[in-house]
């Protein structure tokens, strides 16, 4: 297994290939295409240039190659923090969390935290407002938008929960980019309390000793792969950071790609025994590297 950070002239080549231009103010590129940017004065460099180039050439990229399915973990992958811990720390639950942490599985502990917030009179709207302040790297936003514009099928596979993920993605205008969000389900009960439930039925253990009882991501990946095989040639790009991302990466096939965040548990596990991994591995450290590597891999899959 080779850990690589690829750099190339992809941005320049795509711009030359497209023959189109943009003024970075959201005006059309040719008759149909627009570029979204954070500010009109921002200068293009590095992965920002790559992102814009990919958007410009989106039509031609969609016309060839394998279907690309991009599966994102959420905490410390899409966002630069852990959404569960963010709510615990920013809504004053740290002391109770530390008391109960040794006694409850994580998923049940988060549901208990919601019970505590409800008992304190905190509303679902206040929880949502807290979540809107979770940091998200602007280049990660750009990469997600670009991959979606290029026709990739984007999914979230996370051990967070549906309310947190939906709230954050909608706040950043990214919800429309994802075809599927696979995570622990939530509901607001009749009393206005947010409830968090396990993805897998805990009455029948999924049988994987690498994953927590509430969610085996490897099992989900197998289900996604089975669905993909019915739709023709596809490649998976999987991005993650944590221990729960190790099992699904072992399910990837040759020709697939995994992007572990450098210095995090998934990266450590893959380094410890690289022979178990069939997919190609590409480490990343921040949003700029995520964007650059991901969009280059999308182009690589297209050219296969």
What does the model show?
The protein is of the alpha/beta class. It has helices at residues 10-18, 47-56, 58-61, 83-90, 94-100, 106-119, 124-131, 138-149, 162-171, 217-229, 246-250, 265-272, 287-303, and strands at 67-72, 153-161, 178-184, 186-188, 194-196, 234-240, 257-260, 280-281. A 6-stranded parallel sheet has the order 3-2-1-6-7-8, with helices on both faces.
Order of helices and strands: HHHEHHHHHEHEEEHEHEHEH
Which structural category fits the helices and strands? alpha/beta
Report the biggest beta sheet as strand number plus sense, adding barrel if it closes: 6 strands, parallel
Specify the oligomeric state: single chain
Q: Over the alpha carbons, how many angstroms does the gyration radius reach? A: 20 Å
DSSP summary: helix tally: 13
Strand content: 5-15%
Kindly report how far apart the N and C termini lie.
20 Å
